[in-house]
Amino acid sequence: MKPLHQIIRKPLVTEKSNLMKETDNVVAFEVAMSSNKVEIKKAIERAFNVKVQDVRTMIVAGKIKRSGRNFGKRSNVKKAYVTLADGTIDFFGV
Predict the structure, then answer these.
(1) What pLDDT is recorded for position 89?
(2) Among residues 41, 55, 49, which one has the least CA distance to residue 7?
(3) Which residues contact 69 (CB under 8 A, 6 or more apart)?
(4) Which SS3 state, helix, strand or coil, does residue 58 take?
(5) Which residues pair with 26 in a beta bridge?
(6) What's the pTM value of the predicted model, to 2 decimals?
(7) Between residues 4 and 60, which one has the greater pLDDT?
(8) What is the pLDDT of residues 36-74, one digit of tens each?
(9) What domains appear along the chain, each with residue ranges and CATH number?
(10) CA nearest 81: which of 7, 4, 29?
(11) Residues 31, 37, 43, CA angle at the centre, nearest 5°?
(12) Do the Cβ atoms of 74 and 36 come closer than 8 Å?
């Protein structure tokens, strides 16, 4: 298995993810494009000492951006929505 920091890139802290965390015990992460659901589940369980019930993944297409007359494209991103069976993950330690 790959190291944890190569699978889990960063947590997604948005209004939608905070609402899902409070109501459904679901936490969102940005993960590596090459990672699969089994690797993500094991990485989350090892990194945060929680029990993962389900993992849903999606690939978000990068937007086309323009700077003057030049066009560029942002990279594609893979998101993982992780449903926790028990326990919670607190990113800010408050």
Answers:
(1) 87
(2) 41
(3) none
(4) strand
(5) 83
(6) 0.88
(7) 60
(8) 999 999 999 999 999 999 999 999 999 999 999 999 999
(9) 4-86 (3.30.70.330)
(10) 29
(11) 60
(12) no
Amino acid at 41: K
Tokens of 8: 């889990």
Both tokens assigned to 20 = 């899902």
Instruction: Give residue 22's identity as a one-letter amino acid code.
Output: E
Q: Could you tell me the pLDDT band of residue 94, with boundaries at 50, 70 and 90?
A: low
Confidence at residue 90, expressed as pLDDT on a 0 to 100 scale? 82
DSSP string, 69-83: TEEEEPPPEEEEEEE
Structure tokens at 61: 């297409």
In angstroms, the CA 18 to CA 42 distance is: 23
- The tokens describing 28, both together, are 């969102």
